[in-house]
Amino acid sequence: MISVQDIIQDLEGLIQELEQSLGQASSFQELEKIRVEYLGRKGRLAQVMSRLPELSKEDRPQAGKKANEIKNKLHELFEEKKESLEEQKNRLDLATFDPTIPGRNPDVGSLHPITRVIEDICSVFIQLGFDVVSGPEVENDFYNFEALNIPPEHPARDMQDTLYITDKILLRTHTSPLQIRTMLKRKPPVAAVAPGKVYRRDSDLTHTPMFHQIEGFLVDTQVSMADLRGTLTAFLHRIFGPKTRVRFRPSFFPFTEPSAEVDISCVMCGGEGKIDGQTCRVCKETGWVEILGCGMIDPAVFAMVDYDPEKYSGFAFGLGVERIAMLKYGIGDLRMFFENDIRFLQQFV
Ligand code: PHE
Q: Cα of 179 to ligand 1 centre, how many Å?
């Protein structure tokens, strides 16, 4: 049978041995090794403690108490050493830290040119009192066509032009469904712009299956074509400069009556049609470039959203963001916007 004295001696011996080992340790790795050796689950302390049950019942409490004291002491010694190693390391770090080394510049991203143009355009309309609204890219036939007075035989409804998901569900082909969605939710006066992605079955040099549009519309009492012209002219002057000339050409859209297309004087040749005697490739010598479609909202659309056409009138317009970005920044190739070439994108920082 072992005696209490034996155990106590062993326990006290541990203190001396640990002090010695710690005195020699100079790194955190060594320190960890020592911790496992003495304080680990199968370490020296645990070994001594595992012998406690061999003691007589009367001796056990005394030995147990001592064992706890020793355990605390060992932990204390260990923590002290750890702190002093940490202090040493901090001093070393400071001594080797060179504050004169130039810092590393973090890589900062920038907004995509399309995002910038969308923000520029929306901010002009926000200043004119318009709200910004948005809606789903996966639309149903009702919002994309039917409510916009687009008849069943209209070519836009053709499988050739529209990306259908089912018979009645499709990828929106324009942002005009936002006119319907917004008017169904609000009563006049309303004025909103709706930027977003639209999809068409089209892919060549100047068309991509996805591109961006911004829809705008305003409904109130006594809104006239003059309001439409004034608003769009002010907007185009803000985006392309006050010298830009603006003209309205009669056109047709099923959801506006009358309808117009808007041209601005060519940003490339200033409306001359030629640059240094050469044909301007942007306006093909006409001096004008088409920039958006617009018109007075058709009473048939008002009927769909339960607005009284006798009381209210309004205008709407839709524009292609990529087209405006190309003209504004003089970009010749539509695909540039979608290739995500850093050398291209960096120019818009
Ligand atoms: N939605 C039409 C298009 O995509 C543009 C438009 C919008 C025309 C609003 C008139 C009024 O071509």
A: 11
Classify the C-alpha dihedral 301-298-152-201 as positive or negative: negative
Confidence (pLDDT) at 167: 92
Q: Which residues of the chain are under the pLDDT cut of 70?
A: 1
Q: What pLDDT sits at residue 224?
A: 98
Domain boundary among 54, 71, 96: 96
Same domain, residue pair 185 and 75: no
Assess whether the C-beta atom of 293 lies below 6 angstroms from ligand 1: yes
Which residue's alpha carbon is nearest to atom 4 within ligand 1?
Answer: 174
The residue whose C-alpha atom lies closest to atom 10 belonging to ligand 1 is 294
Mutate to test the pocket of ligand 1, among 215, 253, 257 (most ligand atoms within 8 A of CB): 253
What is the Å distance from ligand 1's center to 293 Cα? 5
Pairwise CA distance, residues 33 & 24, whole Å: 12
Residue in the structure block whose two tokens are 């003495």: 38
Q: Which residue's CA is the closest to the ligand 1 atom numbered 5?
A: 318
Residue 46 CA to residue 126 CA, distance in Å, equals: 74
Which residues does residue 251 pair with via DSSP β-bridges, in sequence order? Answer: 259
Q: What percent of the chain has pLDDT over 70?
A: 100
Number of structural domains in the chain? 2
Residues spanned by the domain of 291 = 113-348
pLDDT digits (tens, 9 = 90+) for 299-318: 999 999 999 999 999 999 99
Q: What is the pLDDT of residues 266-301, one digit of tens each?
A: 998 899 999 999 999 888 999 999 999 999 999 999
Q: Is the CB of 176 under 6 A from ligand 1?
A: yes
Element (H, E) at 247: strand 246-253
